[in-house]
Amino acid sequence: MILALSSCTTAATETPLTSTQEPANTLKVMTHDSFDISEEVLAEFERANNVKVQFIKSGDTGTALNKAILSRENPLADVFYGVDNTFLSRALNEDIFEPYDSSLLAAIPDGFKLDPESRALPVDYGDVCLNYDKGYFAQEGLAPPVTLNDLLQPEYKSLLVVENPATSSPGLAFLLATIGNFGSDGYLEYWEGLVANDVLVVNDWETAYYSEFSGSSGKGPRPIVVSYSSSPAFEVLYSEPPVDEPPTAAVTANQTCFRQIEFVGILKGTQNFELARKWVDFMLSKSFQEDIPLKMFVFPVNSEAVLDEIFLKYLSLPDQTAIVSPDEIAVNRETWIKAWTEQVLR
Amino acid sequence: MTKTDDYPLLRSWVRPLLLWLPPVLFLSLFYFYPLGSILQVAFERSQSGLAGPFYEVFSSPGIRSVIAFTFWQAALSTLLTLLIGLPGAYLFARYEFRGKSLVRALTAVPFVLPTLVVAAAFNTLLGSRGWVNLALMDSFNLLLPPIQFTNSLTAILLAHVFYNTTIVLRMVGDYWSHLDPRMSQAALTLGASTLKTLRHVTLPLLMPAVLAAALLIFIFDFTSFGVILVLGGPRFATMEVEIYYQTISLFNLPLAAALSMIQLTCTLGMTILYTQLSRRMQRPLSLRPVQYTQRRLRTWQSRVFVSLFMGLLLGLLTIPLLSLAARSVISLERGQNASITNPQFTLAYYQELSQNRRDSLFFVKPINAIGISLAYASMTVVLALALGLPAALTLARDQDWRLNRWLDPLIMLPLGTSAVTLGLGFIVALDQPPFDLRASPLLIPIAHTLVAFPFVVRSLVPSLRSIRPRLRQAAAVLGAPPSQVVRQIDLPLVGRAVLVAAAFAFSISLGEFGATALVSRPEYPTVPVMIYRYISQPGSLNYGQALALSTLLMIATAVGMLVIERLRLADIGEF
C-alpha cells in the first residue's frame, strides 16, 4: 500500500502544475477550445508589452460565454475572445463587455461590425457551407448541388448529412442559412422536402464529417455534408500522404452559406484595462490577423491581412451569404429550433 | 446486524465523526457549496419563482418523455451489462488461466476512451459502410446495409455495455473470488441442482457486490451524455443532454437547474433504495484467499467453455479497439476509382504527433500529455482513497450509528450530478482566495475525485462489511490498538477491494469525465483533450493523429491496469 501511494505521489510531483517565471504583468484571455495562435506571433506581443499572456480555455463557444457571464462579479480574465454572431446578443444583453473604439476598426469592413457601440469587436469569420465528395460525383457522373433547392431533387436523395442545430454550431448555422433563404415562414417547408429526400441528422460535426461523410478519411456513406468553406483547403494541408488536390469541395453559390463572425471584448471589471486594449488592438492587427487562417480555420476581417498561398489556391469564398441578424437569432432561436425539431425529428 | 463493540472506548460517535471529517470537508467545499451556489444563481434568474421552472418541466410533454427515456434506457443498459458481465465475473473469480491479468487489464480499456473515438470505432465496424454491413451485403447480395446502427437505441445500449462491463467484472468478480466455494459445494453434495445452488446459495451471497455494481452502472447510464449525443443521435435525449441544451443553447438556467435537481433526486432515490436492499442482504462471511477458491482448467470441456466465453467477451470489448488501433497505422489512400481505396501501412500519424509543424502555442508532445494525464490520475487515486477509505470504514463498522444512514446515500450524489451544472458551480463559488481554483489545474484532479470517491466507497464497503467482527474482536482482545487492527486485519482482507477501488479512480481520471465542464489551462492538456483537438479539425492527418493518440491512451491504460494488478498489499492472502 505504502509503496503504491508513494509511487503515485512522485509521479504527481514530477510534472510541474503551476507555471513559474512571470514577467511584470499577466494578461488573462478567456476563450473557447478552438483558439490557437503561433508561438512566435504571441512572443511578439509579450515582448513588446513586457507581459505574460495566460489563456483560459472554457469549453465550446456557448459554454465559454456562460462562464464569462456567471463570473461577471469577479472576472476570470481581462479579455474574452470567441463569442460569435449567434451568441452575440446574449453577451451584449448580459452587459459583460467594456466598449473600446479601437483605431484598427478602420481597416475592417462595416459588414462585420455588428455592435455599433464597439463592445464586441469583430476578429474573424468563417462560412458554414455544404461540402461534397468530388470523387463520388465524378464517378456517378452527377453534377454537384449548386443551390439549396437542388438538394430537394430526386438525384440527391439520401446523399446529405447535416448537424442538429440544437447541439452543434455549424448545425445552427445551416438552419440559419435556410431561414435566410426561405424566410421564417418558409424554411420549415424546405426542411420537409429535405426529410422527404432522406436527409440524415446527427448531433455533432465530428460524427457528420468523419463517420457519415464519404469525402473525409472516415469514409462514411454520404457524399454531401454541412461543414466549412475552409474544409477542402485543410484536406490538402493536413493530408497523409500529401495530395495536390483536395478530395472535397465547398458549395459557395449565393445564399447557400451562413457566415459566423467571431468577436473579442474587454471584460467589465478588469484591472488591466490598458493591456486589455493593447491585446484587442493586437488581435485586429495584421500580424495576428494573418496568423488566424492556418491556426483556426477561419479568416481575418482586417482587409489588409494577406491570405496564405494555399487558401488562394483552394478556397472559394461566397460572395453573398444568407443573413440573419444577431437580434433575430436571439429572439427566435428557441422557437426556430423547436419548430425544426418537430418538423424534422418527429 | 451484529453489534460492533470491538473498541469500547471509541464505541459511540467519536470514531465515525473522525472518519467522516475529511470526506465531509472535501465534499462540502468542492461539491455541496458549488452546487448550492449555482442552483441559487439559476433560480434567482427565474421570473416565475422557485416553482415556475419545475412547472415548466412537468408541463412540457417533450421534457417528460426525456425523463421517461432517461430511466428506461438506464434500466435496460444496466440489465444488459449485468447479463454480459456476471458470467465473465464468474470465470474471473473461479478459474485460474494463463493471460488472465492481461485479459482483465484489457477489459478496463473501454472505460477511459472518449466517446467520439468509441463512436468512430463502432462506425468502422457497424456503420452503414462498416465491415460487418459490407460483409453481410456481400454474402447475401443485399443492396442496402442490413444493420441500421447510426442514431439507434441499439447503438446506445451497445456503447453502455461496452463502457461499463468492466465495473461488473471488477466489483463482482473480486468479491466472488473471495467467496468460500465450500458453501455451494455443500449444497451440491446435499443434492441441490447447479441452478438451485446458484439461486439459493451463490447469488444471495453475491448480492451486496452485484447491487453495488448495478447501482453505479445505473447512475452512470442515467446521467449518460456523450454516448447519447454521439451514438444515439438527435432523436434521443437524457436529462443530462437536455440540461446541456437548456444551459448552453438557450441559456435557460432556471429550467436547467430544475432538471438538475430532478436528476439529483432520482439519484438519491435510487441510492436510498440500494441502501435499504443491501442492508437486508449483508451477512458476514469468511472470505477466503483466492488460492483456495480458484481452480485451474482441468477438463477439456471447461477449457473450451472458458475460452469460448472469454473470446466472446474480449471480442465485444476489444474488436472495436483493435479496429481503431489498426486504423491508426493504415492510410486509406484514394485510388483512381473513388470507391476503391488502397490500404497502406504507415507510421506517419505517430511521427506527426511529435511535430509542431505550424508553430502552435498549444502544441504538447504526446509523451507529455500522457505524463500530465498520469499525474492527474495519480493525484485522483491518492485523493479518492484518502477520502474513500475512512468513509467506507465507518459505513461498514458503525452501521448502527444513526447519522451513517443519512450520510451513506449522500456520497453517491456527485455521480448523479450534471457535469454542466457543477462546472458552472465551480465558476460561481470558487472565486475567492484561498480557493480561487477556477482556472487552477488542481481543479481537474479534484473534479475527478468527486466521481471516483463514490466508486471507491462502493467497492470497499461490501468487502469491509463481510469481515467477521469476531476477527477484529479477537485482535483487540489480544491487545492490538485500533490502528493495528485496521492495518493487520481489515486491509489485508480487503486488499483486493482497495486495488479495485484504486483502479477505478485511476481509469475514471484517465477517461476525463466531464472534461468540457471545467475551465482548462491549455498548457496542461490531458490525452482526451488532445484527442478532441485533433478530431475536431478536418484532414486525414488530424483524423489519423486522433486515432494514434487514442491508441497510445489505450496502451497507457492497459499498462497502468497491469501495474495496479501486480501490486500486492502487505500480507494479502496470508490468512
CATH homology-level superfamily of chain B: MetI-like
**CATH fold type of the largest domain in chain A:** D-Maltodextrin-Binding Protein, domain 2
Integer count of domains of chain A: 2
Give the largest interface: A-B, 86 and 91 residues
Give me the oligomer status: heterodimer
Strand order of the largest sheet of chain B: 1-2
The pLDDT mean of chain A sits at 90
Order of helices and strands of chain A: HEHEHEHEEHEHHEHEHEEHHEHH
Mean pLDDT of chain B equals 85
N-C termini distance of chain A = 55 Å
Instruction: Domain count of chain B, please report it.
Output: 1
The ordered H/E elements of chain B are HHHEHHHHHHHHHHEHEEHHHHHHHHHH
Helix content of chain A: 25-40%
Number of DSSP strands of chain A?
A: 11
What does this structure look like?
The complex is a heterodimer of chains A (346) and B (575). With 346 residues, chain A is α/β, with parallel strands linked by helices. Chain A folds into 2 domains: 23-125 and 260-307, D-Maltodextrin-Binding Protein, domain 2 (3-Layer(aba) Sandwich); 127-258 and 316-345, D-Maltodextrin-Binding Protein, domain 2, CATH 3.40.190. Chain A has 13 helices and 11 strands. In chain A, strands 1, 2, 3, 4, 5, 6, 7, 8, 9, 10 and 11 form an 11-stranded mixed beta sheet that branches. In chain A, helix 2 links the parallel strand 1 and strand 2. In chain A, helix 7 runs parallel beside helix 13. The longest helix of chain A is centred in the last third of the chain and has 20 residues, at 326-345. Chain B is globular and about 70 Å long. Chain B has 575 residues and is mainly alpha-helical. Chain B has a single domain (8-353, 364-566), classed as MetI-like fold (Orthogonal Bundle). In chain B, the strands form 2 sheets. A two-stranded parallel ribbon of chain B has the order 1-2. Chain B has 24 helices and 4 strands. In chain B, a hairpin with a 6-residue loop joins strand 3 and strand 4. At the A-B interface, helix 1, helix 2, strand 2, helix 3 and helix 5 of A face helix 5, helix 11, strand 3, helix 15 and helix 16 of B.
